[in-house]
Write a structure and sequence with these properties.
The protein is of the alpha+beta class. It has 8 helices and 15 strands. The strands form 4 sheets. It has a 7-stranded mixed beta sheet, with helices on one face.
Length: 300
C-alpha cells in the first residue's frame, strides 16, 4: 500500500523576528503577516525567503501594492521571467493583468489545470507572484501540491528508476493552435497560440534537485509534460499518469482562500498549483509576475 501523508513537522513554522508565519495545512503553505512589502528591509526580506523555502507557497496578507511596487518586490528575488504566450501590460510588459469580469460566463479560467508555470522553457520560472486586487465573496481558491513529499513517499526502487529518466515538456497542449477557440472565451486577456514556440520540446530531469533546499522533487505536470525521453508514448503515458495522480493526492496539497490585498508567492520548482473555476458571475482581478529560474538539474 502506498502511504501518502505528512507529519506534524512537515510544515512547522520557524520563529521570526520581522514576520509571522502561520501554516495553512499540514503539508505546505503559510500565511505571512506583520510586514509591509512597500517598506521591506533586508532582514524581513531574508525571512520571507526562508519562509518560502520552508513552506513552498506563502501568502502575504493585507498588502496594497501599485504595479510598480509589485515589480520592485519581484526584482528583489531576481530577473523577471519570460511569458511567451501571454501579453503583458502596455507599460509593464512583465506584469500580467489577470482578470475575469462578472459578465463573463464561460467556464474557463487562466491556468485552470494542475501545472508548474512554463516548465517547457529552458529556464522555467523559479517563482510566481500573484497580487489580489478584487476577489469574489466566495470561490476562486487556489490549490497547491508538494512535489517533495510526492517524491519522498515513493519506494526506493521507484525513486531510482525515476531519477534515471528525462521528461519531455512542451507548450503544445496549453498553447497549440488547437487552443485558439478555447482562449477566445477569455475576453479580457490576450493569449497567443500556435507557432514554433508551442511545439518546441524541452528536456528536463523527471526528478530535479532544488538549488536552495537541495531536496529532490518530482518535476512533472499534466499540462506541459508530454513524454519521457527514449520511450514510446504508450510506454510513457502510464508512468506520467501515475505521477500526475500521485503528486496531486489530497494529502500532498493545501488550499488557499484569497483575501483582498493578499500576495501569493510559490516555488514552481517544487510544487504545482491549480486555480479553481467556481466563481462565474463574480469579478476577480489580480496582477502576476514571475522570477526567472535556472535550468533544472539533478544531483546524484
Amino acid at each position: 500500500m502506498l502511504i501518502r501523508a505528512a507529519t506534524a513537522k512537515t510544515n512547522a513554522p520557524r520563529r521570526y523576528d520581522h514576520i509571522k508565519a502561520a501554516p495553512i495545512a499540514g503539508t505546505m503553505g503559510a500565511e505571512i503577516t506583520g510586514v509591509d512589502l512597500r517598506k521591506l528591509g533586508d532582514a524581513a526580506f531574508s525571512e520571507i525567503e526562508q519562509a518560502l523555502a520552508d513552506h513552498l507557497a506563502i501568502f502575504i496578507l493585507d498588502q496594497d501594492l501599485s504595479v510598480e511596487e509589485l515589480e520592485a518586490f519581484t526584482q528583489r528575488f531576481g530577473a523577471f521571467g519570460a511569458d511567451p504566450f501571454i501579453e503583458g501590460m502596455k507599460d509593464h510588459p512583465h506584469v500580467l493583468h489577470v482578470r475575469k469580469e462578472a459578465n463573463e460566463m464561460a467556464p474557463v479560467v487562466f491556468g485552470g489545470l494542475w501545472h508548474s508555470d512554463w516548465s517547457f522553457l529552458e529556464k522555467p520560472p523559479a517563482y510566481t507572484i500573484l497580487h489580489a486586487k478584487e476577489i469574489p465573496p466566495y470561490g476562486g481558491d487556489t490549490l497547491y501540491a508538494n512535489g517533495y513529499l510526492a517524491y519522498e513517499s515513493l519506494s526506493d526502487e521507484m525513486k531510482r528508476v525515476l531519477c534515471s529518466l528525462t521528461a519531455l515538456h512542451s507548450a503544445e497542449r496549453g498553447y497549440g493552435a488547437q487552443m485558439q477557440n478555447i482562449y477566445a472565451f477569455l475576453e479580457n486577456m490576450s493569449v497567443k497560440t500556435g507557432g514554433d514556440a508551442s511545439t518546441r520540446v524541452q528536456e528536463h530531469p523527471l526528478v530535479r534537485t532544488h538549488p536552495v533546499t537541495k531536496r529532490k522533487t518530482l518535476y512533472v505536470n499534466p499540462v506541459y509534460t508530454v513524454g519521457i525521453k527514449g520511450m514510446h508514448p504508450e510506454e510513457a503515458a502510464p508512468i506520467l499518469a501515475f505521477l500526475n495522480d500521485h503528486m496531486t493526492h489530497e494529502n500532498f496539497t493545501c488550499r488557499f482562500r484569497w483575501s483582498p490585498g493578499a500576495v501569493a508567492m510559490w516555488d514552481n520548482r517544487c510544487c504545482l498549483h491549480l486555480p479553481i473555476s467556481d466563481y462565474l458571475g463574480f469579478r476577480r482581478e489580480m496582477y502576476r509576475t514571475t522570477v526567472e529560474g535556472e535550468r533544472p538539474y539533478l544531483e546524484s
